[in-house]
Every structure is written in C-alpha cells, then in structure tokens.
Amino acid sequence: MSQKLKAVLSILVIIVILFGLFATFHGITKDEDGNYINGKDALKYGLDINGGVYVVMEAQTDEMNLSGEELKELMEQTRAVIDNRVNELGVAESSVTIEGTNRLRVEMPGVTNADEAIEAIGTTAQLYFMLSDGSIVLDGSYVQDAQVDTDGSYYKILLEFTPEGASLFEEGTRKAFNNEPEVTVEGMKSNEIAIVLDGSVITNPEVKSVISGGKAEISGRFTKEHATTLAALIRGGALPVELKEIQSSVQSATIGANALDKSIIAGGIGIIIVFALMLLMYGLLGLVADIALVLYVIMFVWAMVAFDVVLTLPGIAALILSIGMAVDANVIIFSRIKEEICEGKSIRVAVDSGFKDAIVTVLDAQITTLIAAIVLYEVGTTTVKGFALTLMIGIVFSIFTAVIISQLFLSFLAGTERFCKNKYFGVNEDGTPKQFIHKKFNFIKNRKIFYIASCAIIIIGLVCSIAFGMNYGIDFTGGTTIQVEMGEQVKISDVEDAIKSFDLDPSIIYTGEGNTQVQIKTIKALENSERNEVFSALQEKFGLEEGALIASEQFGPSVGDELKANAFKAVVIAAIGMLIYIIFRFKSWKYGFSAIVGVAHDVLMVLAFYAIFRYTVNNPFIAAILTLVGYSINDTIVIFDRIRYNKKLYAKNNNETNIDLSLNQTLNRTIMTSLTTLVVMVPLIVLVGGSISQFIIPLMVGVIVGCYSSIFVCAPLYYDMNKKDEMSKYMLKQQEKERTERRKEKAKEDTQTKTKSKSKQKSKKNK
C-alpha cells in the first residue's frame, strides 16, 4: 500500500471517529418528541440497570392433585413455555424462575407497563384455533412456527403446523370455507377461524380456501409491530396449566437512583485515564492505541444498538474485560515492534515484522476467549448469555481496531520522515526499550513460594466456608420484600435507620415514578406479623398511612438451581473448548492443562475471597466468575505464546531460562493490561458506590488473581510438567556423553595396546 493511500485512509478513519463521537454524544436522528437520540438513549438496559417489570404468577394445580416430582415436572414445562414466549417477544435478558413449588417469577427489563407485559406472556393456559360455533380445531401445541412477512404494503403472518396439526387445520378450514359451522361466538362469521389466547380472540381471519400442506397465511393490513406480536404469541404455544397473576410491579434500577448516569460518567473517566496512561507509557504509539480505542468504543455502542442487545451488569463486566483486551492487543503489538527496533532493524521494517509476529499472539489470545464466550452463550441462560454476547462483540471489534486500524496508522507514521525515529516508537536513543520495570526476576526459582501462598489462601477460604458458611445474598437464598409508598423521595439512610433494630441487613432501592417508593429486600424469611412490624416502624418514622404498604411477601431465589447449574456447566464446557484449542495451536497438552489449572486456581481464589471476607454471594458473583475465566485465559495465552516463541529462538537454553526470559519480557505488558483494566473500574466504585461495588470489587479481585496466576502459577506449572522430560533429555545426553567418553577411552587403550605390540615386535627383530 502506498504512503499516499495510507494517508487518505487514515484521514477517513479520523473523520469516521469524529462522526461517531458526534452521533454517540449528540445523536443524528430524532425520536417522536423531536429530541436527538444519542448512544445512551439508543441502548437498552436490563432490570439491574434501568428497571423493568416483574410478574409473579401462581399455577392453578388444586384440581390436578399433583405433588412431588409430578408437580416439579409440570412447573418446569410451564417455565420453559413462558421463557420461550417472553424470548419470542424480543424481551432480551428476561428471567423466568420457579419460586416455591407452584409459582413463576418473570422479570422483563425495559418493559414499563405491567398490564401489557402480563397480557403478552399470558395469564392463563390456552392458545387454540376455534370455529364460529365455538368448537376447537387444534391447540397451540400443533403450531410448529409462525413468522412475519410483508406484501410490500402491509405485514402478514406465515403459519406452519406439525403433520398432525396440518390434517386438523385442513379439516377446520374445509368447514369454515363451506360455511358449515353455526355462528354462536359473538363477532365471528361462519367462514372465520379465530386464534384465541388466554380466552381472548387475538385475530379471526376469514378462510378463503381449504388449506392443506401444513402452511397458512394470515393477512389483515397488520402493522409490523402488530404482526410481530401476534406471531410471537402464536409461536409461544399452549401452557400445560392455568396461571393466575398474584403480583406485578414496575421496578427501578437495582443499583440505585441515577446510577446509570453516574456509571456512564465513571466509565468515561476510566477510559480517559486509560488514554492518559497509554500516552504516558507509549508516547506516539499510545496515541495510536487511543485512536483505535475511541473507534472501538464507538463501534461497540452502536453494535449493541444494532443487534438490540440489552446491557446489564454482567454486560458491563464484559465491556470492561473487552476494553482491557483491546488495550492488551495494542500493547502486545507495540512490545514486538520495540523489540524489533532494539535488535537494530529500521522503523519501517520493525513495524512490519512486529505486526507479523504479534498477530499470532493476538489472535490466539482473542480466539481462545471467543471460544469461551460462544460456549457460554450457547449453554448459559439469561445473565450468562448477556455477558457472552457482549464479550463476543467486544472481542471482534478489539481484533479489528488493533490489527487493522493500529497497523494502518503505525505503518503510515513509520513511512514519514518526521516520525520515523526511535523516540516516537518507545525506544530510547541508546536502543533500549522504554519500560517501567527494568529488573529481571527469577520466577521459576521461587515458584514453590507462590504455590504455597496460593494453596494457603485456598485452604483458608475452604475452612472459612465450612466453618462459617458462604454469605449468600438474597438472589441465592430468597427472603422477604416490602415495598412502600413514601409520598416523596426520602434518603435511603433514613429508611435504614428506621428499621435497623430488626437486624435485616437489607438491600434498599428506589422504585416507582419519581422514586417516591422504596423496596426493602432481606434474606430473612419474615412472617406476616414480622413484616407488619417493619412497616409500623416506617409508619412511625415517616408518618405513613395504611395504604402506603404496596407489597409485602416472602419469595424464592431469583437465581434458581437451573441458572447456577447452567452457569457451572457453561464454564466447564468453555474450559474444555479452550483446552482443545490450546492443544491444537500449541501442539502440546501441557500448555492447555496448565492454562485450565490456572483458571481453576483463579476461581478457587475468588471463592476464598468471598469466604474469608464474608462478601455477599449475589448475582454479581456469576459475572465475576465469567469475567475471571475470560481474563485469566487471555493473559495466560500471551505468556505461553512468548514461551513457545523463545523455545524456538533459543533452542539451546533450558526451560527455566526460556520461561524466566519470557515472563520478564511480558511482565511490563501484563502489568499494563491489568492496570488499565482496573483503572476503568475504580471510578465506578468512587462515583457510583452503593450496590454496584458488590459487582465491581469481585471483578477487581478477579483481574488481580488472573494476572497473578498467569505469571506465578501457569508458567511455573508448565515448567514442572516439562521438568521430567528435560531431566530425561539431560540424562540421555549425559549417558550419550559417557558412552562417547568410554568409546574414546577404549579407542585410546586400543591404540596404546597396538603401539606396545608393535614396539615388542620391533624389539624382537632387533635382537
């Protein structure tokens, strides 16, 4: 590529970035009220960030005489159908969990109207096709699919039935087409078939011909929204039991009032600090990384909007992780370029060869994490899927910005006379690299110290968990919720003071319009009389009336056994997938095994943190573990790639020398990546605080532990696994050396014997 073309493309990228910044902060399109839609407004947020609707429904099983496993199986079937129906409606990050024995709790982020939400998911149990005389043609279980199509002007619904359903539907349309049924259902004609959901007709199209083959079309001048909703409801199918609504509520963000705005500001501050660090540590290279990172953030935001992804707290975790990986990709590239320059190559050649060498490391690290994200998305549910999808988007864009955009700018700068100098590419005038750690450490020699330290912490955590138990939060244990209308927005601290004598250790959040309501959650199961005592304390403190008590109930955990089991299963399968990829790429199972042991070590260390410091095990725990898996494996792969590279380059060195060399070479990069990842989190704790700290602090612990294990556990473990082979090779060399020495000694002895023999023969002749 010519220098002129590189200049043009670089300018185009800058223009795209400026346009993206304008669209993200100001907006380029308007909403119905004429306001510009910026990135924040365009994004969708989960219940844990921006609130939504939750509905509690009870299965009407009294007449069914079910109990035990039969009831459990029925509720699982019902939960699956409701979950499918909510997902078909496009409510991302929804959560459908079983509470107690016969209740379902449905959480739908972004939904603000409880009545519409209940109507959408269905409060009763039946979806069926009905003739005008009230006779049933078939129920929803015979519907195989329902999709939306358009004829250019209006939208229509395309139906597909199962083979048995096709026969039933053909018979029903024959009767309707021939006007055979009597009209007994008000509002219907004899040639119509009504589609009835929860006892209400959602549409009743006319039958214009006998329909065979199992496919049908419903047209009726539908709008896109109406057709999409109808198709989703039809796809949802019939429920195996009738459900009755017992509670519904519009819920505010669980991370506190105005937390979203504060989170955005805190995130912005964190990214700005990352920009400053990159400039400080890498100069012109850091500026290129910052340009790539700005583009990355812009692309990430609008990809979330385009793919209609709902951003949740686990999604924020994935964003933080992917920002760290985006920075890391650039740091890896910069490090290789500096090494090439230090070896005496010209700037232009160093940039080309540095990118060529670094691309393998970047792709290995990112693809390994991508495999984990794909598995988590396929196997996991709700929270896990949100994390995985967000991480996948981040990985793809981090590869693009680091490999394509950074390379474009660096190759352009390397071709200019002004910037084609060592000082602009992180190298001192004497040819040494600029870095903040210059000392060389003997990691392998001291590895047993780190082994002992890790084992000690894990054992202490295990003892604490057995002796005192884990501090499970309300998401895992269930408990009590009390929702009260305060009449005005009051201070959370005042509410805490009013009920502190009950020793509830509560989670208190704002809810309702204008944040005039408070919702109190506690893991304690309070009887009705106890809940009334709590409300009486609030009445006395704030002068409330009896009608101020909006809701008061005991409830089961929102994170059920299925969610925990699926999260565990997802992590295990992801670990297996990563293991296979690492073995394939590194041609050795020892690399893969060492990396996975490192992941297991990190999970145990985080569990120890929760146990030792009695940190609350809540929903953020799952996000922290998932983030840890992604971060830890990425860091480890980078180090292993350098070990592999050095083993080829310095084949005569032993393993200890090569591994120590590799760890020292990547140490600056490892610390820089961890530092930038942590920097993004710190402003969130300082500015937002509250319950978001329960989410961020475990992530910070995970990043620190992941950095630690990559250096002090995984690489030393790989050394120990190869120690026997190296000793065997050493022994073989020694044995070969000894055999060679013996052969030499024998040859020497033979020579001496022959010499003596010749001397004797000569002596005899002389005599």
Report on this structure.
The chain is built from 21 helices and 17 strands. The chain is α+β, with helices and mostly antiparallel strands. The strands form five sheets. The protein has a four-stranded antiparallel beta sheet with strand order 3-4-2-12. A four-stranded antiparallel beta sheet has the order 6-5-9-10, with helices on one face. Strands 15-16-14-17 form a four-stranded antiparallel beta sheet, with helices on one face. A hairpin with a 2-residue loop joins strand 9 and strand 10 (200-203). Helix 10 packs across helix 20 (655-688).
Give the end-to-end Cα distance, rounded to a whole number of Å.
92 Å
The poorly predicted ranges are none
Let me know the average pLDDT.
Answer: 80
* Largest sheet report: 4 strands, antiparallel
- Helix % is 55-70%
Q: Counting H and I runs of at least 4 residues, what is the number of helices?
A: 21
Radius of gyration: 34 Å
Outline type: elongated
Oligomeric composition of the shown chains: single chain
Q: Which strand order do you get reading across the main beta sheet?
A: 3-4-2-12
What structural category characterises the helix and strand content? alpha+beta
Précis, in short:
The protein is α+β, with helices and mostly antiparallel strands and 767 residues long.
